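Handout, section 4.2: multi-component inputs.
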Amino acid sequence: MSGRVLVGVKRVIDYAVKIRVKPDRTGVVTDGVKHSMNPFCEIAVEEAVKLKEKKLVKEVVAVSCGPQQVQETIRTALAMGADRGIHVEVSGKDYETLGPLQVSKIFAALAKKEQADLIILGKQAIDDDCNQTGQMTAALLDWPQGTFASEVSFEADKLKVVREIDGGLETIKINLPAVVTADLRLNTPRYATLPNIMKAKKKKIANVKPADLGVDVCSRLEVLKVDEPPQRQAGVKVETVEDLVGKLKEAGRV
Amino acid sequence: MGIFQRFARLPLKSRYIWCLSSQYSTDLTAVDRALIVRSSQLIQHRCVHSRGLGASPGNPGAAPPRLPFSRVTHEDLAFFRTLLPGRTITDPDLLKSSNVDWLKTVEGNSEVLLRPKTTEEVSQILRYCNERNLAVCPQGGNTGLVGGSVPVFDEIILSTSLMNQVITFDNISGILTCQAGCVLENLSNYLEEKDFIMPLDLGAKGSCHIGGNVSTNAGGLRLLRYGSLRGTVLGLEVVLADGRILNCLATLRKDNTGYDLKQLFIGSEGTLGVITAVSILCPRKPKAVNVAFLGCSSFQQLLETFQCCRGMLGEILSAFEFLDASCMSLLEKHLKLTNPITESPFYIVIETAGSNAAHDEEKLHKFLEEVMTSSLVTDGTVATEATKIKALWSLRERVTEALTHEGYTYKYDISLPVEKIYDLVQDMRGHLGDRAKNVVGYGHVGDGNLHLNITSPSKDPALLAAIEPYVYEWTSKWKGSISAEHGLGLKKRNYIYYSKPSEAVALMGSIKAMLDPKGILNPYKTLPDNIH
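Output:
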């Protein structure tokens, strides 16, 4: 048991930003737009750091795949308490088509290389809403998975995970090593305080290429087009109940 | 028990006022009349330095008796209904919220609320009201904190809520022209799409109207960087008391042709004219905004941090605000907000705004390293993402809201020399002791502006008497302003002499008499009662 946790952090468009579709409808505008760490990834980092503070794990490694800018995201994870970072360099066209399948292959390869005992990821990213990376990673490694976790605890050498499911909460016990994906109510991420931000500057971020891990990032998916959702039509105000009934009849609703 | 015995218990000045009311004049004895003469002599003698007639020494903010304006008749309503069909509100339920101020401390009895859409309609309303001698209370977003935005008696409420159109925007000069009823936040959103921002920002942005902001010369959180409305407002369209439309809606940065009339109306709190349109210079939206939330263990260190900040962040600094530990505990208690850093006696919110994220972050990090290593700051956090920035700002912006949950709030908006700011808070704590539930200080420390707030579970005249005039005398001693940005409104009108000499106030009275001879525009506000 190495006591090492890998945490995936994704750099996404900040959720408060208004999204604009590119004029050529091939994607959304990302240039000059504010980016930040995916909120579910923040929760994942917070959980990993909490486990380390409870001395249940020994080292937290933050991993991100993408161009130079993702180093910012890794630094934020370091400022929250991760020990070191790994930047998997993917840029240009490869980055545009990077999806859950390739990322999960990268994570699987890294997990083996780093001999990780636990992988914690956000349940989904707020840009693609795929909710696939955690599950695929577990499948590739043939590890058990505790997804949509709202509570994680160690019981002897197993992991107890309370999952948020449609019908309520499901509690499962899984063997380690395992993959856990974080849901909203798992924890409230801490603010990175100044002393930690200063310390984070000195922590190491290693650079790795997908090829070094034996992973082919070529995508088998092609985005055909991206459109805005249909504009919401204005409502119609009426003066009396009779008018309302009349309008509903006109629209064939009554 | 005659009138006289009850009469004798009233404070001297109130007795004078009591007598003005004609109902009681027949009951006066010779002794009473002598008293009146004596007290009026006293008052006239002390007129210049008195705290004003009409209000008792125990409650100078209270309204004077109703001035002899006309009352609204059916003919008047018919006129308004013809002029503004469907926009003449007389339903008492609908009127309720416009009759009460945001703090729920002042309530009027207006029976008519008018909602014009155009300047022409405002002009016709005022021309009519001037002829009929009907008092008018102009009202924007009703977020004022000195009781200036609601009627005192039955003044007609003139609301700008339907005058919410943007007229033009020039994206080369950044000059925005819009009607006075545009909500500040809506203007910010409109400008954001065009890569600009409004030069002012305040906690009330979701409700306040730009016309109201201009008539109170609102300060806000960005004054440190972009200056006051006196510099950013380029032109105004104002309707005068007699209905004349004064069109000074220039869109020029520089225009030195004659007296700058718009400056009269900025900050006049609706007493000299009703602002119907504004042209304002808007800055470009900064590409990079960072917010740092820091903790300091003493006010002295806070001031030194400010010095350091000015030196190292100077050109990118856009806000420097503070709050004390009492504010933080109220935020945690009532609004369930979390303190992002370790508990400290003082907290600072610093915002930087610049054109290059990488440069700004470097400057900010150097500054933070400096203040941390020199122990000026004990803890802190930084945010660059919009959601986190909003969360950090809410710790400063929502203090006012948190205070409303503590019962009755006594608000003081004071300008002082920066070093003296917290001395007032500590002095007040000592002076009031157990009588007050909370004594908190927060505000625009970068501008030398303190928001001193004192709470008690319910309105307490004894506490009020202990606070006022102590707080104003303290302010006057250090040559500060008794109302830095909130204005005078109803509540502080009689305190004007603590910050302005009598000659100045007398001249203000002359200007008011010239522009509004019948005094129909927002009566009982801004100027002291003894000006008449």
